[in-house]
Amino acid sequence: MSKQKIIIDTDPGQDDAVAILLALASPDEIEVLGITAVAGNVPLALTQRNARMVCELAGRPDIRVFAGCDRPLGRDLVTAEHVHGKSGLDGPVLPDPVMPLQEQHAVDFIIDTVREHASGSVTLCPLGPLTNVAMALEKAPDIAPRIRQIVLMGGAYFEVGNITPSAEFNIYVDPQAARIVFRSGVPLVVMPLDVTHKALVTAARNDAFRAIGSPVGIAVAQMTEFFERFDKEKYGSLGAPLHDPCVTAWLIRPDLFTGRHVNVEIETQSELTMGMTVADWWRVTRRAPNALFMGDVDADGFFDLLTERLARL
Ligand code: BDR
Ligand code: CA
Asked: Are strands 147-153 and 188-191 parallel, antiparallel or unpaired?
């Protein structure tokens, strides 16, 4: 497989951090062109900072990090400190970042990068609300046919919702942005809660991260320990779901995941079901498929990959 050029759009977030670390640990398969931060789990001032801290943890202060939109397109920002802690990255004690934040706005970086590279060569990997990506598509519609694919974490079908009874957090925070992305015509690969709730950090998997023994392995164990308290209490599950790393894992090992090519529409009107991903999983409509919507993951294979790659950093 040829090396994939990607932009990671993110709101770190412990699971975002692990997704970034996995990408940076996989230079044979993935070239990270830049990281764009968006408001989501915590406000933008923290997500852009956290993104730089993660790059430094990985020993990659050369990665360019850009700040993007500080609020959703048409709604007030909803954050998730109740899951991720006050900083968004609670758990390990990481040093303040030294590497600079880039001056260019994240949306312009996305546009310029897609235009500068060969058509069909740049993949976008959104791990948070879709505000930056939607803004880029709105501002520069010419980039849509040039984007190879958008591989994103968001939505749910059988799992329905985590921030409301009917919506997953990333889509709920900015449903208008999600609607733009899902209607963009760009090939979409979607990692919904249906998959990510199967990627649970059990005690044994957490021990495996810690046993790596490096600053990265220990920090990842501390991150997942921190945010598992919330999910264990809420779902009675064995550990925290590692949502966002499913995106970067798919780029490396797509065979670990299975899904269906179906139509997915975003609810943007009803306050009750705002941000719901209405996935035509059973193909009961004639609406044209617009997304490869994942449904299952080989969780052991996923964690083996993650542990093996994190040990390289
Ligand atoms: C998504 O929301 C955030 O809390 C996580 O980082 C993930 O991207 C899961 O619903
Ligand atoms: Ca995220």
From this structure: parallel
Is residue 243 part of the annotated active site? The answer reads yes
Task: Name the nearest CA neighbour of 65 among 24, 95, 121, 30.
Answer: 24
Q: How many CB atoms lie within 10 A of CB 140?
A: 17
Instruction: Give the domain CATH number at 271.
Output: 3.90.245.10
pTM strictly above 0.70: yes
pLDDT at 1: 59
Q: Which domain holds residue 58?
A: 4-310
Average pLDDT for 58-74 = 98
Mean pLDDT of 83-98: 95
Catalytic residue among 82, 84, 243, 261: 243
> Is ligand 1 within 6 A of the CB of residue 169?
yes
Q: What is the pLDDT of residues 135-167, one digit of tens each?
A: 999 999 999 999 999 999 999 999 999 999 999
139: CA distance to ligand 1 center in Å? Answer: 26
Distance (Å, whole) CA 153 – CA 181: 13
**What is the Å distance from ligand 1's center to 16 Cα?**
8
Q: What's the total number of domains in the chain?
A: 1
Q: How many CB atoms lie within 10 A of CB 273?
A: 18
Residue 42 Cα distances to 47, 122, 135, 300, angstroms: 6, 27, 19, 30
Q: If you average pLDDT over every residue of the chain, what do you get?
A: 96
The answer to whether the CB of 131 is under 6 A from ligand 1 is no
For residue 225 and ligand 1, the question of a CB distance below 6 A is answered with no
Which residue is associated with the tokens 């934040």? 101
Whether the CB of 228 sits within 6 Å of ligand 1 = no
> From ligand 1's centre to the CA of 169, what distance in Å?
6
